Amino acid sequence: MELATFLIDFILHVDRYLEAFVRNHGAWVYALLFLIVFTETGVVVMPFLPGDSLLFVVGALCGVGFMSFPLACAVLIAAAILGDQCNYSIGRYFGPKVFQWEQSRFFNRNAFLQAHAFYEKYGGITIILARFMPFIRTFAPFVAGVAEMSRPKFSFFNISGALIWVLGICTAGYFLGSLPWVQDNLSKIVWALIIVPGLIAVGGAWKARRASAAAAG
């Protein structure tokens, strides 16, 4: 319970924690950033760690001189790319084993073929868009591995998505984080960066489920 309380507080006040960490531990903050982003993107059971809000806050702290913007971006991009590659590899390893359950309702050969076809056709845009959606960001590379999306194709969109995600949000934080209105409402911005993408993801899943149900009916 104490760990859950700490994680919630860290997610909602990541700016305070990072600022305090920089003051107390200096350059070790880059190792911390790598660990957080790599774990959030690379371990399928850790989707609740901060992502978009962390990048925005890092950009804001760079903007006021607490960290190096080029170094922070380089570390975060590397973590995002390696995290997705790790998650993809885990899915690629377990996928063939899971889909051997021919009697399973969801994990059967037909489900694998459908997932594989989807990721070969739409996987690129899925990997990129998933970067901006909590939870889906963690599961998308794993599912791509399970569906055996080709590694070169996955790697191309993984790198492209990481560059767009990290540079886009960190740059926004860098230029907007020093504005008085942003500083006064940073907690609300963090909430928005968590809730809005989540609602979009839930809405998309709901529409897809309705469309699937309508097609089946």
UniProtKB/TrEMBL annotation:
<dbReference type="InterPro" id="IPR058127">
    <property type="entry name" value="DedA"/>
</dbReference>
<keyword id="KW-1003">Cell membrane</keyword>
<comment type="similarity">
    <text>Belongs to the DedA family.</text>
</comment>
<keyword id="KW-0812">Transmembrane</keyword>
<feature type="transmembrane region" description="Helical">
    <location>
        <begin position="189"/>
        <end position="206"/>
    </location>
</feature>
<dbReference type="InterPro" id="IPR032818">
    <property type="entry name" value="DedA-like"/>
</dbReference>
<feature type="transmembrane region" description="Helical">
    <location>
        <begin position="27"/>
        <end position="49"/>
    </location>
</feature>
<dbReference type="Pfam" id="PF09335">
    <property type="entry name" value="VTT_dom"/>
</dbReference>
<feature type="transmembrane region" description="Helical">
    <location>
        <begin position="122"/>
        <end position="144"/>
    </location>
</feature>
<feature type="transmembrane region" description="Helical">
    <location>
        <begin position="56"/>
        <end position="82"/>
    </location>
</feature>
<keyword id="KW-1133">Transmembrane helix</keyword>
<dbReference type="InterPro" id="IPR032816">
    <property type="entry name" value="VTT_dom"/>
</dbReference>
<feature type="domain" description="VTT">
    <location>
        <begin position="49"/>
        <end position="174"/>
    </location>
</feature>
<dbReference type="GO" id="GO:0005886">
    <property type="term" value="C:plasma membrane"/>
</dbReference>
<keyword id="KW-0472">Membrane</keyword>
<feature type="transmembrane region" description="Helical">
    <location>
        <begin position="156"/>
        <end position="177"/>
    </location>
</feature>
<protein>
    <submittedName>
        <fullName>Candidate DedA protein (DSG-1 protein), membrane protein</fullName>
    </submittedName>
</protein>
